Amino acid sequence: MALPKYTETRYRIWHYFYIAICTFVFIFLIAPLFVIFPLSFNAEEFLVFSEGMKNLDPDAFSLRWYKDMVYGTKNPWGLAAKNSFIIAIFATLGSVILGTVAALGLSSRHMPFKGIIMATLISPMIVPLIISGVAIFFFMAKAGLAATHTGIVLAHIILGTPFVVITVTATLSGFDHSVTRAAASLGSNPVNTFMKVTLPLILPGVISGGLFAFVTSFDEVVVVLFLAGLENTTIPIQMWTGLREQLSPTILAVATCLIVLSTLILISAELLRRRSERLRGINR
Amino acid sequence: MSSETKQILTTDGIPLEISLKKAERKNKIKAFLLVAPLLLFLIITYIFPIGEMFTRSIDDKMITKMLPKTFKSMETWDGKELPSEDVFASFLSDFKILVEKKEHGKLAQRLNKEKNGFNTITKKLFRQVKRNKIDETQSIKEQIMKVHKRWRNVEYWQAIKRTAPPYTSAKYLKAMDMYLNEDNKITQVSEDRRIHRILWLRTVEVAFFVTVFCFLMGYPIAHLLATLPMKYSNLLMICVLLPFWTSLLVRTASWMILLQQQGVVNDFFVMIGLVADDNRPEMMYNKVGTYVAMTQILLPFMVLPLYSVMKTISPSLMRAGKSLGGTPFVAFWKVYFPLTIPGIGAGCLLVFILAIGYYITPALVGGASGTLISNQIAYHMKTTLDWSFASAMGLMLLGGVLVIYWLYNKLVGVDNIKLG
Fold it and tell me: Could you tell me which of A280, A279, A246, A268 has the C-alpha nearest to residue A45?
């Protein structure tokens, strides 16, 4: 942002001050993620930059913590990763199906009691997680689903659907309903219309809602801590126990993998958002 | 011409109005059926259990079921002097049943919560009953009173009477460091035992300051992102979105590394000469750690709503303000800032709501002075197993959040939440 030549000195100073503040905030936001990277390749057991690392000595770096993560004898990361992925995938599927169908109903202009129903459907996102955790635990304990994968999947569906509902309703707000009427007038039944016409058009919204649901489930720890038994341990639970007891470099290796994963998710979410905006742009 | 004679008919002879209403109703049902599965699922697995938290938090039926006859005969007792023979007799018969069911321990525990000293005297009575020392042909009142001097004290009988109602507000009072005393008046617990009020205050304080910090840091960068040309702002947006998508635990872990005494932040302070090497400040396991980590974690939730509002403000408005003679500061304050207020409201309330229920980060970087009410709820759920107390505190927190949520809905509308 170049300043015009006639800018007074005090506004010039203010402008540079503003740029400095912004730079500081951006560093504050992103720098913590980059600390983990180099430290996860540390050859030593301490969580500080060793002299060797500061001098970029190749011997100071190693992959030992990544090896430990994968092959470590007592390491629970394998089981945790498997559980995390299974739970997240099923929870995402459930959230996407329930959430998309509900969003279709919600964006119909005939929907009765829209406000209160929307508020109810979004409530798991607004209610503090700790309270959701207590309530869901009471239900699962009664239903005999505590310490089972099913119970955790159901819990994550509860927490994930608000995101799907929000993103899909947002996509549907720019949706041209005359295309479904056109399909119906051409003799297509509602299910066929949905699969062939509506779904392809709102797919970016559905997928980005699904991504939110996936991340919510994959990263969720508060509710899982109430529900999970030893068999159902997940990556967040293992990280939580690890961080509470002792910060080991293996956790940093896991964290690095998670950052890579979130980068991939970010890229796909951004691409989807742009595609969705493009599609909506055509409709306007 | 009246409207009845001029009614418009559809082709099948039904009045148009009725036919339209029918179609409308059909559409309503269709729309509702689409929402029904999720709504039903949430009501069963989520809304009902939250309601159950409420019944659990006020439930005191256990003792009502244990001493049915006693409470019945106590109905006529005025509660001023020792109760009559009748009350003693029914208490003994209730107690005998409990001894048979081996539930007298539970009774002692519950009564001891009401008034200290019940444990001992219930045990004594239990021994007498077990040895069949109590002769039911003689005055039971006299015999029980001989078991321990406290059974002769009217205060203990008053305490029993106080437990009669099946519902209690005790858990809620306890969460506010209060209790009902002998005269059924709300009293504060002694000064050294007031722990919960500190936690509530600290929770609100942390949530408030985190919101303020997020606003102070989020506003400038949201403004920069909204005014920069697309190709730069897209790049900088990654700095906001990447933390947003990254695991909470990963970010907490990185703050633990950064803030430790030999950590990068302290290294940096030593390097620029701010602090001495042997006098590195403690930045973790206290409030500083909680504030820093929570601000960074919640900052994207402030930036994104602000950005989406600022993006819609036309830059020509600021130019118009300046061309009408306002200095840049005046133009900003009088034109730009008021237009961003919806975004500020959304961002602040979102951050505040999230911060007030925070659990993981304070538990990891907060130490003892950084724990919040959520940590206390988790502690009672998992360690002391006092679920009714945890429920009571959870519902109080929920009440606060719902008030804020209602405000948010009034100011911004829940369906205006945008993500990413």
Answer: A246
In chain B, where are the structural domains located? 20-51, 62-164, 196-416
CB contact under 8 A, A99 and B245: no
Q: Taking CB atoms and an 8 Å limit, are B31 and A111 in contact across chains?
A: yes
Q: Model-level pTM? A: 0.84
B225 within 8 A of B231, measured Cβ to Cβ: no
Q: Do A108 and B27 touch (CB under 8 A)?
A: yes
Class of domain B196-416: mainly alpha
Count structural domains, chain A.
Answer: 1
User: Is A74 inside any structural domain?
Assistant: no
Q: Which of B239, B264, B364 is closest, CB to CB, to A29?
A: B239
Taking CA–CA distances from B236, the nearest residue in chain A reads A26
Please report, for the domain that includes residue A114, its CATH number: 1.10.3720.10
Per-residue pLDDT of chain B (420 residues; tens, 9 = 90+): 445 556 777 777 788 888 888 888 888 898 899 999 999 999 999 999 999 999 888 888 888 888 888 888 888 887 778 888 888 888 888 888 888 888 888 888 888 877 888 888 888 888 888 887 777 778 888 888 888 888 888 888 888 888 878 888 888 888 888 887 767 778 788 777 788 888 899 999 999 999 999 999 999 999 999 988 888 888 888 888 898 888 889 999 889 888 887 778 888 888 887 777 777 777 788 888 889 999 999 999 999 889 988 888 888 888 888 888 888 888 888 888 888 888 888 889 889 988 988 888 888 888 877 788 998 899 898 888 888 899 999 999 999 988 887 877 776 665 555 554
Residue A190 lies in a domain: yes
Residues of B in contact with A105 (CB under 8 A): 30-36
Q: Which of A212, A111, A201 is nearest to A162 (CA)?
A: A212
CB pair distance less than 8 Å for A138 and B245: no
Which tokens belong to B253? Answer: 């872990």
Q: Which domain holds residue A146?
A: 81-283
Tell me whether residue A19 is in a domain. no
Alpha-carbon distances of B393 from A97, B169, B201, rounded to whole Å: 34, 12, 14
- Chain B nearest CA to A178, separation (Å): 16
